[in-house]
């Protein structure tokens, strides 16, 4: 798998922005990627030093639209901690 196949997209939420102050960044990653592959992909794509990777398998939730019941998709989330002094500019120039 290439780095672009492993890192799917950054997660944008209030919690993820709060974690950025602690030098932790949140990404949606491929479900079959392990922590070592995620670390190598982030280091390759963003030219930073990764100190740790925490992964979470997000389980699907049951949702209903009128009379039809279904589930949301299952996906994997990774919280990547960077070394001191490193940062990732997700949105270019942030205020």
Secondary structure blueprint with pairings:
Layout: H1 3-6, E1 7-10, H2 14-20, E2 24-29, H3 35-46, E3 50-58, E4 62-65, E5 68-71, E6 75-82
Antiparallel strand pairs: 1-2, 2-6, 3-6, 4-5
Explain how this protein is built:
- It is a single chain.
- The protein has 95 residues and is an alpha+beta fold.
- The protein has a single domain (1-80), classed as 2-Layer Sandwich (Alpha-Beta Plaits), CATH 3.30.70.
- The chain contains three helices and six strands; from the N terminus they run αβαβαββββ.
- The strands form two sheets. A four-stranded antiparallel beta sheet has the order 1-2-6-3.
- β4 and β5 form a beta hairpin.
- The protein is globular, with a radius of gyration of 15 Å.
- The mean pLDDT is 93.
Give a summary of the structure in a few sentences:
This is Large ribosomal subunit protein uL23. GO terms for molecular function: rRNA binding; structural constituent of ribosome. The chain has one domain: 2-Layer Sandwich (Alpha-Beta Plaits), CATH 3.30.70.
Instruction: Specify the CATH class.
Output: Alpha Beta
Please describe the biggest sheet, giving its number of strands, its sense, and whether it closes into a barrel. 4 strands, antiparallel
Q: What is the domain tally?
A: 1
From N to C, what is the helix and strand string?
Answer: HEHEHEEEE
Q: If you consult CATH, what is the topology?
A: Alpha-Beta Plaits
* Uncertain spans: none
Q: What is the gyration radius calculated from CA atoms?
A: 15 Å
Oligomer: single chain
Shape: globular
User: How far from one another are the termini?
Assistant: 34 Å
Strand content: 35-45%
């Amino acid at each position: 798998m290439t780095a672009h196949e492993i890192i799917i997209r950054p997660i944008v939420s209030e919690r993820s922005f709060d974690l950025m102050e602690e030098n932790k960044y949140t990404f949606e990653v491929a479900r079959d990627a392990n922590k070592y592959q995620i670390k190598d992909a982030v280091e390759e794509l963003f030219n930073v030093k990764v100190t740790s990777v925490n992964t979470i398998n997000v389980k699907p939730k049951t949702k209903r639209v009128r009379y039809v019941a279904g589930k949301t998709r299952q996906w994997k989330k990774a919280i990547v901690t960077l070394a001191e002094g490193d940062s990732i500019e997700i949105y270019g120039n942030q205020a």
